[in-house]
C-alpha cells in the first residue's frame, strides 16, 4: 500500500487538527501506511489511533521545518503528502520543490483570507501573496467548502487544481465520546452551549449580549462556554459586568465537549466568518438544535434543508436573542438533523480523498 504523510502544526484543540486526525485514522483503517508529521503535543493526541506513527517536530516552528520535512518525506518514502492549514501548505510546497523525488501533494485550505487573517498583521498580508505564488505548484488543492473554492479561484489558483471536499466528521468516535459521564453543577440542568475559540472572529461577545436579553425573558436556561483564546478575559469581564456570573460558565478548552453538547438544549455559533463549521455538524449529529450567524460555511451545511436556525445579523444581539428564544421552544426534528449530519460522515468523505491518492 501507499505511504501517506499528513503534515499539520500540532494536536492542540482546533478544527483543522480534528480533520487531519480523522483522515489519518480513516486511512490507517484502510491499511495505508500513515505517518503524521506534527508537534507531538496537545490534548487531541489521544484521538489518533495508537498504530499511526508520529514524527515529532519538536521545538521546530512550522515556518522553519522545510528541510526537516524534506528529509522525512525521503526517509519514509512517502507517496502522497496531505497538509494544512496555510503555513504547512507553504512549507510542503517548497519542500516538494526542493526534493529530487517528488511526492503527490494535496494541500487543504480551511479558511477565508478575510477578517481573521487581516488581524494577523504582516503574516495576514503575506498569506494571499504566497497563495498566488505557490498554490498552483500543488497537485491538488482541497477547499473545505464551495465558498473557499470560489475564493481560491478569485486569487488565481487554477480551477482545474481545486476540488471541494467537505470536512470528514468521525461520527463513530463522537458517539462513543458523547457517552462519557460529565461533572456538571446541578444548577446547570438546562443550558445553551457555545464550543470554539474565544477570539474576535468567533464573535462570542455578541452571544453574551444576546444571552443577557434572553435571560430577561427566560431564566430557565444558563450559558455554557467551552473553549479558550485571547478574548477570554474580556468576555469574562463582560459577563461579570452584566451580573451574569451565576448564569454563565466558562470551562476552558476540553478534549471531549460532546457529552456537554449532547445534554444542551441549544448550540449557538455567532461567528463573523466560518469556512465550514465542524461543531455545527457534530451538534446536529447529537440531535441538538443549532442557531448560527449566516456565515458562508454554515449556509452550505444547511443547504436547502432548513435544519439550522440562521441569523442574518452579525452585530444585533436583539435579533440573535429573539431567534434563541424561538429555537428553545421550537427545536428542530432530530431525524432531520441526523439525516443532514450524515452527509458529512468521514466513512463517505474519505473516499473522495482516496480518489486523489
UniProtKB/TrEMBL annotation:
Q: Does the keyword rRNA-binding apply?
A: no
Query: Which residue numbers delimit the Glycosyl transferase family domain?
Result: 189-333
Any single GO molecular-function term of the entry would be: glycosyltransferase activity
Sequence ranges assigned to domain Glycosyltransferase subfamily 4-like N-terminal in this UniProt record: 13-171
Sorted alphabetically, the keyword list is: Transferase
Looking up Pfam families in the UniProt record yields: Glyco_transf_4, Glycos_transf_1
Q: Does the keyword Phosphoprotein apply?
A: no
Query: Mind telling me which PANTHER family this protein's record contains?
Result: SULFOQUINOVOSYL TRANSFERASE SQD2 (PTHR45947:SF3)
Q: What is this protein called?
A: Glycosyltransferase
Q: Which organism is it from?
A: Bacteroides caccae
Amino acid at each position: 500500500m501507499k505511504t501517506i504523510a499528513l503534515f499539520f502544526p500540532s494536536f492542540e484543540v482546533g478544527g483543522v487538527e480534528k480533520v487531519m486526525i480523522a483522515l489519518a485514522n480513516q486511512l490507517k483503517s484502510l491499511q495505508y501506511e500513515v505517518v503524521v508529521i506534527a508537534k507531538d503535543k496537545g490534548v487531541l493526541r489521544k484521538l489518533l489511533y495508537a498504530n499511526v506513527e508520529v514524527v515529532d517536530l519538536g521545538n521546530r516552528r512550522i515556518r522553519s521545518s522545510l528541510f526537516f520535512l524534506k528529509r522525512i518525506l525521503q526517509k519514509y518514502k512517502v507517496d502522497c503528502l496531505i497538509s494544512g492549514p496555510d503555513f504547512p501548505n507553504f512549507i510542503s510546497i517548497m519542500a516538494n520543490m526542493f526534493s529530487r523525488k517528488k511526492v503527490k501533494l494535496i494541500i487543504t485550505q480551511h479558511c477565508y483570507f478575510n477578517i481573521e487573517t487581516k488581524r494577523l498583521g504582516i503574516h495576514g498580508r503575506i498569506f494571499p501573496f504566497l497563495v498566488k505564488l505557490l498554490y498552483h505548484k500543488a497537485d491538488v488543492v482541497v477547499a473545505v467548502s464551495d465558498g473557499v473554492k470560489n475564493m481560491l479561484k478569485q486569487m488565481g489558483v487554477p480551477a482545474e487544481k481545486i476540488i471541494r471536499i467537505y470536512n470528514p466528521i468521525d461520527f463513530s468516535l463522537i458517539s462513543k465520546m458523547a457517552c462519557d459521564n460529565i461533572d456538571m453543577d446541578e444548577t446547570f440542568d438546562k443550558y445553551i452551549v457555545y464550543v470554539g475559540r474565544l477570539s474576535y472572529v468567533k464573535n462570542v461577545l455578541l452571544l453574551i449580549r444576546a444571552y443577557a436579553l434572553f435571560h430577561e425573558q427566560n431564566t430557565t436556561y444558563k450559558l455554557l462556554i467551552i473553549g479558550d483564546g485571547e478574548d477570554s478575559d474580556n468576555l469574562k469581564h463582560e459577563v461579570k459586568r452584566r451580573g451574569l456570573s451565576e448564569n454563565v460558565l466558562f470551562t476552558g478548552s476540553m478534549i471531549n465537549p460532546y457529552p456537554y453538547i449532547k445534554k444542551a438544549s441549544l448550540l449557538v455559533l455567532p461567528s463573523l466568518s466560518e469556512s465550514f463549521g465542524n461543531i455545527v455538524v457534530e451538534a446536529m449529529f447529537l440531535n441538538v438544535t443549532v442557531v448560527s450567524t449566516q456565515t458562508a460555511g454554515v449556509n452550505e451545511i444547511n443547504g436547502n434543508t432548513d435544519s439550522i436556525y440562521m441569523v442574518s445579523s452579525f452585530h444585533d444581539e436583539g435579533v440573535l436573542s429573539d431567534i434563541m428564544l424561538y429555537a428553545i421552544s421550537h427545536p428542530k426534528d432530530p431525524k432531520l438533523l441526523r439525516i443532514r449530519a450524515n452527509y458529512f460522515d468521514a466513512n463517505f468523505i474519505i473516499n473522495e480523498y482516496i480518489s486523489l491518492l
